[in-house]
Design goal:
With 267 residues, the protein is of the alpha+beta class. It folds into 2 domains: 118 residues, MutM-like, N-terminal (N-terminal domain of MutM-like DNA repair proteins, Alpha-Beta Barrel); 132 residues, Orthogonal Bundle (Helicase, Ruva Protein, domain 3), CATH 1.10.8. It is built from 6 helices and 11 strands. Helix 3 crosses helix 6. The longest helix is centred in the last third of the chain and has 16 residues. Keywords: DNA damage, DNA repair, DNA-binding, Glycosidase, Hydrolase, Lyase, Metal-binding, Multifunctional enzyme, Zinc, Zinc-finger.
């Protein structure tokens, strides 16, 4: 699932290709908006909000998309053949004289009034990569339900926007707790450190496609535990474990992360 840094990177690539330019091609391949015509309108900008993308165009309209599990936007020079996947997976095309953006496998794609953007993003908590980032408010929301497992609280975009499964696992590892530990059991100062670390990591990764949470430069060790099932924990050497539940996946070290384990399907 794309996380806040991935969405920020995609938004800024789209903004560089589309903002300030007039659309010469606009094709929304979803039944509800298939007849909408945005050609001739200037794109005002593309903005990320948590894991949401907001492309604003002249006339007070916003094209809202969400990548969820495997959606993606790809930008090509106009006239260049898109290579982001089969043509039937394309849900949106936005093009101008220089660049064309293709939205692949977008589970959420809708056209709304810019004045109504709050209807789709107004519920979000402080955006880790937003201009109005508020760490104190993020900590307050995160700690509001002390009995809630840390992993669930981190993934809840109403607490702080931008964290997905990767950062959930990595942040818990860095705090030496499991994602199943109740937030209220973290200890003094830990929520503040978690929030500060989340902000630091997303900021460090927003401008690059190859996410890294470690300081080592060894191949295959960009992350501490995520995707490293069966490999030695970088802290204590114990094999990293993996747990799956619905569309959530968690990686953790059973030896040096306190808090137990709460998923049923573990390996």
């Amino acid at each position: 699932m794309p996380e806040g840094d991935t969405v920020w990177y995609a938004a800024h690539r789209l903004d560089a290709a589309l903002a300030g330019r007039v659309l010469t091609r606009a094709d929304l391949r979803v039944p509800r908006f298939a007849t909408a015509d945005l050609t001739g309108r200037r794109v005002l900008g593309v903005t990320p909000r948590g894991k949401h993308l907001l492309a604003r165009v002249e006339g007070g309209l916003t094209l809202h998309s969400h990548l969820r599990m495997d959606g993606a936007w790809r930008v090509y020079a106009t006239g260049e053949r898109p290579r982001g996947g089969p043509a039937h997976q394309i849900r949106a095309v936005l093009g101008n004289a220089e660049f064309t953006a293709y939205g692949y496998r977008l589970p959420v794609l809708e056209l709304l009034r810019t004045a109504d953007e709050s209807q789709v993003v107004g519920h979000l908590g402080p955006d880790l990569l937003g201009p109005d980032w508020d760490p104190a408010e993020a900590v307050r929301r995160l700690a509001a339900d002390p009995a809630r497992p840390l992993g669930e609280a981190l993934l809840d975009q109403r607490n702080l926007a931008g964290i997905g499964n990767v950062y959930k696992s990595e942040l818990a590892f860095l705090a030496a707790v499991t994602p199943w530990l109740p937030v209220g059991d973290l200890g003094p100062g830990v929520p503040e450190r978690l929030v500060a670390t989340a902000h630091r990591l997303l900021e460090a990764n927003k401008d690059r496609p190859d996410r890294r949470t470690t300081t080592t430069r060894r191949t295959g060790e960009r992350l501490h535990v995520y995707g490293r099932e069966g490999r030695p924990c970088p802290r204590c050497g114990t094999p990293v474990r993996k747990a799956e539940s619905a569309d959530r996946v968690t990686y953790w070290c059973p030896a040096c992360q306190r808090g137990g384990q709460g998923a049923r399907t573990e390996r």
